[in-house]
Every structure is written in structure tokens, then in C-alpha cells.
Amino acid sequence: MNLTLQVWRQENATKEGRFVTYKADDISPDMSFLEMLDLVNERLIKAGERPIEFESDCREGICGSCGCVINGQAHGPLRGVTTCQLHMRSFKDGDTIVIEPFRAKAFPIIKDLVVDRGSFDRIIQSGGYVTVKTGPQPDGNATPIGKDVADKAMDAAACIGCGACVAACPNASAALFTSAKVAHMSYLPQGQVEAHKRVVNMIARHDAEGFGNCTNIGECHAACPKEISIQHIAIMKKEYICAAANYEPEIQRSEGAI
Amino acid sequence: MSTLNSKVPSGDLKNKWDSHKANLKLVNPNNKRKHTVIVVGTGLAGASAAASLAELGYNVLNFCVQDSARRAHSIAAQGGINASKNYPNDGDSVWRLFYDTIKGGDFRAREANVYRLAQVSANIIDQCVAQGVPFAREYGGALANRSFGGAQLSRTFYARGQTGQQLLLGAYQALMKNTSTGKVKMFSRREMLDLVLVDGKARGIIARNLVTGQLEKYAADAVCIATGGYGRVYFLSTNAFNSNATAAWRCYKRGAYFANPCYVQIHPTCIPVSGHYQSKLTLMSESLRNDGRVWVPKRKEDTKKDPNTIAESERYYYLEERYPSFGNLVPRDVASRNAKDVCDQGLGVGASGQAVYLDFRDAIRRDSEKVIREKYGNLFDMYKQITGEDPYKVPMKIYPAVHYTMGGLWVDYNLMTTIPGLYALGESNFSDHGANRLGASALMQGLADGYFVIPYTIGDYIASEKFKPVTTDSPEFFEAEKNVRANINKLMDVGSRGKKTVIEFYKELGQLTWDKVGMSRNAEGLKFAINRYQELREDFWSNLKLTGTSEEYNKYLELAGRVADFLELGELMARDALHREESCGGHFREESQTAEGEAKRNDKDFCYVAAWEYKGANQEPSLHKEDLSFENVKLSERSYK
Q: Who among B76, B128, B136 is closest to A62 (CB)?
């Protein structure tokens, strides 16, 4: 296959970026999208040019490192697939492919397609855990958890933290990411003790990071490579309504509510 | 050659860990906050150690090369985690888990470490449940178990096919909680490039900020390496793109011994290589072997046929025939070697002939497609995504690939390396899996080291030592920084003139290691490889091509530093493999096999840990031995027939 790429190149967070056009010839349909970029980079390096910087690690769709907007869609045209699991057989010979970073105020660009998603870590820091010390704990079977409940918790916990939901959302909201953790914890008995504190603080942190509000558009659900359901946002809102009356956030809220 | 002191406590095997804990010195709670510990790596071992040490009161500086601690490669572990809970009432016990692990490791692991691992395994499950890890459950609400590669018991706990992800997120969340209180300072996008020794003790590291390219110095009272294994020396492996051995290797060059580098696990169930452009291999969890049947056609002329048209009588279920009692569940090394064997006989399938079938037809007939989908849905989807074939309809094609390295930094019973104050945890050490790791034991070991071993043993060191105040202004830090800077400058300098890209060198290195230090090794090939590594290094340091600068985000410069280290590590692997004139576990020497072609151990001459000491650039390393004594188990031939 012979392709034309239009790739966002940006030297660092402060410099202005621009699209640069590259030819990507002799591409095998069995290559992954990132392997195609690897090959383009090999050719750029050979020509003495700077390669396109992009992030990837596991290359099997679970670490959440990779991700770019491909022809306007976060992680590209297929549903339920990360950029690393997208293969060139999804494109046609002669196609032009536009490749951009995940854009959001809360994801500053580091270089080319690499963005800083530290805001996600800070959302988890604000309450996305069960406070439990390392040490002897009650037996794992001491509290029964129904299979249906464990399965629902797992559906939410499957989030890989890639940021596609933010990139896809016209409001650049991280509601799906935040709700996946809130919902995971809300299903489980272990998550109950800190439920109010958790949801209030995580939403406050979400807003303070500069993510936008959720207005039920649903692009996040469509873009999510793990197909995390938008229902989790509803669960988070329910949790929030119950909690907000009882609990003041521990960090300063920015304007607006989720 | 000297003998190493493993510091295994005396007394009955069953009481060693308890009596050791009772004798370890304690650090006063008010004093813990005066001590700083560096933890490098945020996988299961690193994240669990960092979180647990912070909870005890130590100040923890935690580093990772990824953009977030949550991305470490533990996240990709699929199948599960072992624990001797005996919930299914099928006869499991600490002893059985211990014995299976020792035997599975082909009697090349330290008894006391493995017993401790089996003892704390049950605590790990309880800890993770308390953190909210959504393990699979039965309808009544109890934890579900399954049997997993090489075990005749159902002792494996799992969270769909994403167990590593869920355990890692549990540890990551504990870590983030301690980050929010400031007890852990998290440094992501940092790569450790040197260890700093002061008075012979580990007192800090030099790290490169991967965004700015700046070198940074960090001082501490102890350093824990939890940076995983060195499987990426093969270029193609199931390890992540950023997985590397650089931190461990730089420790080796500062005097930490490197043990058993030739013990590498080749995982039997991976998606076969499809082309030269391939950047990594993808594992299909071996839990699939519980329901899938492995076969190849009996006749060479059938290897290109549609597998669904091959009659039952024309299929060679080679594992079931050769190993009737374990069948498709033989341990990984046995399964891998047999796959290679049938492919070498010309019975391999797929375009390359380097693949065997893993077939779910019978399981789907027996249990229904729905049941199989519930168990393995995400794995089947992943397979389809990569290969374009639907495994519900056509058998999967699989082939072995490098997956895990049992060798690593030598550690004593306290997980301390030969450098005082330098610890190695998880896959980065050599300690618990001998010459072959059993399925679902990597997660167990990583979390055992981080949650339940290091929090005890590090206190003993900190309480016993007098720490002179050290800051990053001390001359040792400047020396180490200078050393790192010189190395980077040399890479950039060569890189501005050379012609070959890092990836070209990397692929050559990987192919050489796979061919000569892979699934099957012989003296001639290993000697060839030792020479070839040296030639490749010379070529690398005179002909490498890089672009950009070292003062910016530069992925290919990072990679070049790692490849330079792998070019040295590969040679050490070959040397270790050459000296070990026996077959054991993942190390198969063609010169040492039984009449039936099975691995033949030599307990008389090789029942020891080989720990290598760095002697300088292009000098032969020197060998130190830790004799393995088995007081509680009888060494037997590892038979799965």
C-alpha cells in the first residue's frame, strides 16, 4: 500500500505546531499502525530527519500509553481498539491519513503526538483508591461479592487510562475516565466506606485540572478502546448527588459541575 | 571463584521466615521518616514496595520510564496469580505450592525463598481483595479459581484475562494514595542511568529526565531496583517496547552480581511472527490451554490445508500423546520445546511453517460458545484483531516467544544484592523461579517481594547501618553523572556520523540471541555468539545513526542506550549458557538430553546459582557460585509423562 500521512509536528509545549506531509510507501496491510509509523521513522532517520515522536509501550492494547487521533477519531476508525491494535488492513491503498495528538487543555503537548496525561494520575490521587495498609487483611472470602456485582466492577475497572475519551469529547471532559473508577469502587463493599469523599474529591480534581463538563454527548463511549459504558457517568452522577450534600471537597473547585 | 552467602536463616524450613522476621531489627517509627528509599520501577514489585514502604513511614522516591506509574508491563499479564488458599478443596497447601514451584523450576531455585513465597501467597490475595481488585467470583460470592499451566490444582485467581492489569491498578492506587500525602514522590518519564555508591553502599541514582534530557541526581539510604526482566534483548518478545535491562545492568557494572542470565522463559502460546516489520509479539494467555487442544497435522502435505477439513485421525495431538498425565497443561518450557520439535520436523502450519494449532472446537462443542466467550472473550477478540481470523471458527495459530527472564541480579534471602543497600525485587532478581517459572507465579512473586518481604528486610538494614549524611553534591554523584554524560555524548557523537539505525542494530542483536541463545543452545553456537556480540558492539559504537539532540525528548536516543547495554548483556547470557553444560528448565543444551530428547540435568556438577561479577569493559566476568542445597525435597527427574 502507498499512503500519504499528514502528521502533527510540534517541537515542544511552547512552540507552535503544524501539519507535515509524508509519503508512506510499501506498507503491508498486516502491519500495525505503530509499525507503519516505525517504518516511516526509520526512513526519516536514514534521511537525517527527526523521527515522529509518539508514545507506545505494551503494543497489545492494555497499557494505555499509545493513542493519537487518526482521521478525526481517537484511536482511529475501529471500535474497541487502541492505536497499537489497529492494523493497516483497515486502510486502503492511496489513502491520506491525518494523525494528531489527543488534544485537551488538561493534556499539554510534550512533542509531536506525545501528550502529558499527568492530570489522570492526579484524579486518581484525589480518591481513586481504597485506603488500606499493607498487612494482614480479612480472608478474601470473608465478604461474599456476587458474580454479577464483580463482573460489573470489572467492566468499569477495565479502563486503561489512555485519554481517548477526553480527546473524543467536544468538551474535553474526563467524565468517563473518572466515572470508571468511581463506579468500579461503588460496586464493591470495599469501596463503600470512602464513597462520598471519593466522588466529591475526584470530581473536584477533574474540574480543577481543566477538563470540561459532561453534556451527555456520548463520543467518549464510542471512542473508548475498552468500550467502557457511558452508564458509568450516570452512576457517578448518582453517587455525586448523594455525596455532595454530605461532603465538602478537600480541594478548591473550579467553575461548573459535572 | 568464591562462595556466596545467601543469608538463609537456619532452622526448619517451615519456620525460617517467621523466626527471621522475629530476629530482624526494627526502625523506630520516628526514625523512619528520617530515611529515604529510592524505588526504581512501578510494576507489581516496584509499586507495591513503594506504597508499602511509604505506609511504614519512609520517604520514598519512585521512578518510572513511562508517563504514568500505571503503565508498567505487569499490566499485560493475563492469566492469573497463584495462591495456596485451597478454596476449591482439591488438596492444595503451602507445601504443594512450594514443591510445585521448586520442581517447576527444575531444582535450580533456593528452597527457603520459594517456601516463603508460597507462605505469603495467601496474604497477597487478601490484600488485593481489600484494595478492591475485582477478582472473578462464583455465583455465591466466593472467589473463583482455575487451574493454570503446569498445575494439577485450581489455585489460580484471576480477573478475566486482565489479572495483571487489575493487580497493578490495585498497587498503583495504593501508590497514588501515598503520593497524595507526599510520602511518595513520583518521578515519571525518568530513566535510571547509574547507581551511586558512597563508601561501597548504594546511596543514590542518576536519572535522565526523558522530556528535557537533563540529568538529575537523587540521594537516599537504600535503593530498590524493580525494573523487570531483560527479555527485550531478543528484540521480539512479549515484553513492552520500553522494557529494558539498563538499570539492572548499570548496577551490575557497579559491582552487583548478575545471576543465571541464561535462564529465559520461552512462552508456548504467542501469536506467530508475521513479517519483518514486526515490533513485538503478543501473548495469548496459557489459560487457553485449559480448554484448547494443541495439534499439528500428522502429514506434512496437510500443513497448508484448511485445518477444519483435517480429519480427527489425521491430527497429531502431540502434547496429549507424549505427556498423557499433563497433556496440554505441561509446563511452559516443555510445551515450547515440543512446538519447536514438531515444526522442525516440518509439521508446522501457517505461512512460515513456524506455528501449531490451538483448537477450541471440542471445548465449544462441550461447553457452548457462550461459556468459552465468558472465559476468554477478550483474548479471542485480541487474536482476531491482530490476525484477522476468528478463533471461534478456525483454530488459533501459536508459536513460542520470549516472555520472562528467570535470571537477574543476585540477591540474598533479604533481597539485597552484593552491594550493601541495593535491593532487587520482582523479575529483576533471580531468586524464586529457578530455571523455569510456572504460570501465574510472576504476579505472585512481584507482589510478595513488594508487599510482604522488602518492608521487613529493608528495616533490618536501615536499623543496622550508620548512615553518614550524603547529598547529591558529594563527589560520588558528580563522578556518576560525568560517567552517564560521557556515555550519552558518545552515543550522540557516533550517531551524528553513522549510517545504521538503532532498530537495525536491535534486530540484528535480537536475531543472533534468538538463533544462538534461544530455545535450544549448543557450545558451537554460543561461542560464535560471544564473538558476534563483540563485533556487533564495535559496529554499534562506530556506525550508529541518531538524529536530534540529547537535550530533548528523543525516543531513539533512549533506545540506543538500552541496546548498547543489551549488546553486553547478550554476551553474558551466552557465556553463562556455555558454562552450564546441562539442560535445566528454560536452558536446553543440545549436548545434554535423554534418549527421548528430554532435558537432562546434571545435579552433580551444576546444582548451583551462577553469579557473574563485572570485571571491566571487554574483560571476562568472573564466576561465583552459590551452592543449592535441598534439605526438604528430593531432586528428581522432572517428568510430566
A: B76
